């Protein structure tokens, strides 16, 4: 069974051109087959402000109305996706930028409007992933680069969580490839103390995750990332790491998610 | 030899949602293999204005500075490309949206800065087209949908003329497929009288084209389109038409470009 590496890169890294370039050079050096899933960054927020699209939030989470979806699609599927693809091409990686609509690679279900109407937001599960077309691309030396825009198969685009998308793609491909999932961001891993960058927890299993949640050691933003990480693990993904984008090629660094019970 | 249909759709049609939807449904009904190349429309101009990017022109042609390239990439490769792909998917056409950077399908050469520096504008020739990867997609039932953004293989994106891109893609694929190229826009074809929509010229050969040019019957905007059309024909494309977007499925309508000498 071929090993497939799926890397998620966060918006914080995308916002810093030098960090992004280094990361992309490292990603290009990773062995194929591989897939990149990228987040958004601040460009969408800047453009929403500039064009006067009101930013509406519910408990800190953005509501994607029609104007917001348009801006997000322009920024994520347009500028960010294509600049990443062009840089990967330069680095010798045969990247092909995709939204979920492209080749119907990832379809999604519009989130129900109750209890909160988040607008054009799409939720994905493993059955949403088009494994044959992804295998076709991967087996022919292409490297899919996904933005987190999907489609509803009814002609509509949907804004999707990039962490979830990476997790679900990894889960869907775990039967075809020995799959490795790496969530890369601007920290060294999951921190025991959010104020201490050196407090990276080397490994977390499900029991320890429960304990960290109960002790409120894991911060709000990290919780969904860990939920996504464990979901992939439980779906058969062989290895899952949360790690620093600048340490992509250092195999043993970051936080490893492990399924087993902590001894 | 399989017949491949390549359709270019102009910005004027893209700007009218109802016309675009009808066109895309017709395009979905065309026999595969097929490729769509789309132009831009007014959205980029609107967004340039809204975001305060100055529009610089030379003899009526836009100069693509860094800010303009960013907006064009967002609009063409992002919003327009992905909305077209989502609509085609709904209509049962397995579209995959591409810029030239994606899978290195179309590379371009940045136009020399003398005599006029047009900025980030890329010129394409048949050698720029990645025939093996396009054949891979086409032969596996996928329909490439191109925006007119290319790359320089050095990490940079370039704004490219969509008519030229369609012509050059057709020329490059003419050795692998019996290739048909249809330029679709908001008129019935090449008009003998620009003010009379019923004055469609049914066929133009190279000699007649010369004559129409000398008599200044062909207007400024139509000249480069015809140059692109004849270039494809001379490169071995089997059939080239300029026709109305609403008449895509009417085989015999529009202006046929023919290589032979007019009797």
Give structural notes.
2 copies of one chain form a homodimer. Helix content of chain A is 35%, strand content 21%. Chain A is built from 8 helices and 14 strands. In chain A, helix 3 packs across helix 4 (66-90). Chain A is globular. Chains A and B meet through helix 4 and strand 5 of A and helix 4 and strand 5 of B.
Topology:
The structure is a homodimer of 263-residue chains.
Chain A: E1 3-9, H1 11-14, H2 17-29, E2 34-38, H3 43-50, E3 57-58, E4 61-62, H4 66-90, E5 95-98, E6 109-110, E7 122-123, H5 131-139, E8 143-147, E9 149-151, E10 157-159, H6 162-173, E11 178-185, E12 203-205, H7 206-214, H8 222-234, E13 239-244, E14 255-258
Parallel strand pairs in A: 1-2, 1-11, 2-8, 5-8, 11-13, 12-14
Antiparallel strand pairs in A: 3-4, 6-7, 9-10, 13-14
Helix pairs in contact in A: 3-4, 6-8
Structural key phrases:
homodimer; 263 residues; alpha/beta; Carbamate kinase; 8-stranded mixed sheet; two-stranded antiparallel sheet; globular
Query: Considering the protein shown, what is the CATH homologous superfamily of chain A?
Result: Acetylglutamate kinase-like
Mean pLDDT of chain A: 94
Count of structural domains of chain A? 1
Number of strands of chain A: 14
Major sheet strand order of chain A? 5-8-2-1-11-13-14-12
Q: Using only CA atoms, what is the Rg of chain A? A: 18 Å
Note the quaternary state here: homodimer
Structural class of chain A: alpha/beta
Q: Determine the CATH topology of chain A.
A: Carbamate kinase
